Structure prediction request, 914 residues.
Amino acid sequence: MTETKKIRTDVDNETFWREVGLDVERHDDLIKGLPPVFESVFLTQKNRPEKISYFDSFIQDLHGKRPKEVYDRKNNGDKVIGAFCAFFPEEFVHATGAVPLVLCGGAEFPIADAEKILPRNTCPLIKSSFGFKISNLCPYFQSADLLVGETTCGGKKKMYELLGEYVPTHTLHLPHKKDEALSRNLWFEEVKKFKGKVEELTGRKVTDEKLLAAIDLANRKRLALARVYNTRKADPVPISGKDVLLVMQLALFDDAERFVKKTNELAEELEARVDRGEGVAAKGAPRVLISGTPMTIPNWKLHDTIEKSGAVVVTEESCTGTRYFTDLVDTSDASSSDDLIRAMAEKYLHINCACFTPNNERPVDVVRLAGEYKADGVVYYVLQFCHEFNTEFAKVERALRAVGIPVIKIETDYSDSDRGQLKTRIETFVEMLKASKASKAASVSKEAGIKASATGS
Amino acid sequence: MTETKKIRTDVDNETFWREVGLDVERHDDLIKGLPPVFESVFLTQKNRPEKISYFDSFIQDLHGKRPKEVYDRKNNGDKVIGAFCAFFPEEFVHATGAVPLVLCGGAEFPIADAEKILPRNTCPLIKSSFGFKISNLCPYFQSADLLVGETTCGGKKKMYELLGEYVPTHTLHLPHKKDEALSRNLWFEEVKKFKGKVEELTGRKVTDEKLLAAIDLANRKRLALARVYNTRKADPVPISGKDVLLVMQLALFDDAERFVKKTNELAEELEARVDRGEGVAAKGAPRVLISGTPMTIPNWKLHDTIEKSGAVVVTEESCTGTRYFTDLVDTSDASSSDDLIRAMAEKYLHINCACFTPNNERPVDVVRLAGEYKADGVVYYVLQFCHEFNTEFAKVERALRAVGIPVIKIETDYSDSDRGQLKTRIETFVEMLKASKASKAASVSKEAGIKASATGS
Prediction:
């Protein structure tokens, strides 16, 4: 645990940070907050899987080791392409040997800087990302040769216009509808145009062969994550929601091949735990599905509150969750370069983002996931001022109530100001889930008793 | 003035309201608030043009006379098509003899009802519109056979999904970009599809001849509004900003032919005033341009505050302003039905809505309008939680500062809770404009004095 406190005093990092143009003095203030939070949220957990240590060590030097690797690649002529969203077609980036990074900001620290330009009434993720860049507080951002935005929401698309004044930014035109021929074609052409953009930036051609290999790599990453998630269907659950969230968050930062290897190692350990009936929470602990907006490092607030209330998070219907990995790029019918790109474009349109209208697949998906992961209740998570996910709650809530699954909506930002209120609401919800489980169990055993006496057994 | 107080006691209206399914008891509470506000905002003004009386009388029976006319048309077999936005291609509606209405909600009253389903953190216009429908508080809404939404923002597009559960709703897919071939084509096809929708609903064909006549009608409405606006370039200005806002707001409710006639009559009177040098504000009064989100009845708060502070509003860069009427549908090169539709589609894409990314034409346009209307300052108006217009402020502000025009951003909702703060901020801004005008005038006259003494004249 003392390791986590070393970050601030790592002199090598400081030299590196100065070289890449970080505002080192302010960055010190930012980064020193991380170890105590990480310790309190993660390291106090009991019976964690051993293989999570790789992901712990990644976080413990988040702004050191991995950014240095990225800069090594950059110094060797590879470009770095940063993005903010699950709609980012990372396959082209892999195919040109460039480095893809997903840069969403999850920290409160740079928000005050962003609010000098962006409205306060905007989603914390948007303000945090923008603040990280304009204040030179993130080595990943510093490394990017190109940033890739997308038109998922009004706040983001307008922020990207302003971000483009600091660093080259390409905004993918994601249409509002996913079920119309013209929209699908527009998106296909947009993905194809992005391929050209990556080729131009890197000076390297995306051959079919390289693209197939890149698709395979991205698919293997998705499969490794799906494999970890699959173990969470067991009761007792072999890993905490927090730990899986950490893995998900690092999927967006780490080297893809290494990440696949480490995630599969973790999955293997978890599968063995499931076989042994070993869990991190007691069998029968209330199981929570989180559905909604993504959570990026170090946004661990909601998981932490839920799991410290005695429940366990068993899945995330989120872009830092199932929406990121569920669909693979299916190239089995592809017989041309355009077919490969179309397969990619289609995969991304299957992400049930609330930015689509309508997005009727999402309530269905949340109900399906709640069933598969045996969730006792759903916490619907909305980053403050996200109109899309916030308004879509009405439909998801209705779908869940129709099958008798309790749901609570939590709208919050990155600040600590609502921590007390959040804790109270979550604890009440978890108590309600416990009471409901106990009453169901009692009624099942009563029924079993009646049956037993009726049959005389 | 006593006329305005009659609304509540109009027994004929009450019978009508019951017939069309209004919640009459709650509607009484809603409508009784209007006369005192209208009196305080409008009827206390001095030296108003005579021809504004038509528009006054419209408001004084807002939920009576005009909705009855609409129902008479409906009972005669004409359909009623309601919309919420300047992107609504009203020409098809005129062409089929149906009644177009733009239904945006500008009242606080139904918002509490809407917030039972929609997030509180959403734009008041969205909540008000939705609340009016679900609570049966608006006879215009009651009359609509079809509502037409559009994908201008996340809050609206997701609200339309829910609205569609109460009344048939068709959402136009407006793309995020206006300057790409595929986007323009998607929008053209979307407009064309809407023509089919209107034909299907009304059972009437949109022939080229009828469409040309409808385009001509809509263009004449735009020209009549432009003619009124043009008189506001004079100093002293012949009409208050409030009165023009009233005209703009009714452009969306009134019978189009009658509205054109009445608006041209008003324009004629204003032109005569300009010729005589007659104004509603003193010559030299600070001139304010309002730029931003639309204002629908009875949202008169900002204009009222500005004009009661001693300034005059000389133009609105808004969808209840120049964005509504500036561009005409140009059919001069059209030689087919598709050409006519394409001309319409192109006109609508010229609306510089902040929903587009980028929307670089808008800052340019605000600066141009400030020059043409000799604005001393700009009040940038944002309906609360409108990410698009709020974020775009950064660009508009920069463009205005570059040419030395002061600007203040006002973000507000429909409540009265910020009236005091709003008044203070606006008064301070207007005092600053006055001081700046006085100092400029002094420096001009000093310079003139120096020149005069230098030339010995």
